[in-house]
Amino acid sequence: MRIHILSDLHNELSPFTPAPVAADVVVLAGDIDVGARGVAWARRAFDCPVLYVPGNHEYYGGDLQAILAQLREAADEQVRVLDFDEVVLGGVRFLGVTAWTDYRATGEEAAARQVAQRRVSDFRQIRWGAEAREPMPEDFAALATASHDWLRDSLAQPFVGPTVVISHHAPSLRSIAGHPYAGTPLDAAFVNAWDELMGDGLDLWIHGHTHYAVDYQVAGTRVISNPRGYAGEQVAFDPCCVVTLEESGVA
């Protein structure tokens, strides 16, 4: 299976036209456009199946649960929206969650929550619940914990064939190793330290969010991010990024 990997296209700021790529499935690891517009775009842009995990920017300008419902309503058999969802295509199991973060990655949880609430736009751009309030760090942390536990339990289920996790937020501090802005408690607003989920039974983890392209391994699990990012950013984006999965794992 040939998997075309893209994330952080930010079509709301600068429309992206994908290059023709021979692929069996396209994975969109979040921040494609605001609201449900990315689903319609993906349907027009690709002829093959698309697996779309929403990022944080999809939820800007509205209530998180309401926008997730809009994304699901816009989806179909060609473009599938995944959040706490499993899909099997061509003998490959895909597990998709936005993930969010638990603010624990750097070991400075209280500091991470405080600086994130001050500096991360999610707290002002996303609305939460019937009262349309601003979210709190504990709201996102609860989603992250639920995501971690769902992935842990899903990965524990036997499956004959390769398994791929798709998230928006990154699963390991290694995803920002060398990043020019890394090294502060704010790292934990972008990255989780979920390395223990990787290893036997998980072949590939695809993520976005960091605007920093990476390709590394943790305990035999390959981790890839291929973000377009914002105009002018040097993120090593490859518009034709394709990973091949065979029955034995990543080729």
UniProtKB/TrEMBL annotation:
<dbReference type="InterPro" id="IPR029052">
    <property type="entry name" value="Metallo-depent_PP-like"/>
</dbReference>
<dbReference type="GO" id="GO:0016787">
    <property type="term" value="F:hydrolase activity"/>
</dbReference>
<dbReference type="InterPro" id="IPR004843">
    <property type="entry name" value="Calcineurin-like_PHP"/>
</dbReference>
<feature type="domain" description="Calcineurin-like phosphoesterase">
    <location>
        <begin position="1"/>
        <end position="212"/>
    </location>
</feature>
<protein>
    <submittedName>
        <fullName>3',5'-cyclic AMP phosphodiesterase CpdA</fullName>
    </submittedName>
</protein>
<dbReference type="Pfam" id="PF00149">
    <property type="entry name" value="Metallophos"/>
</dbReference>
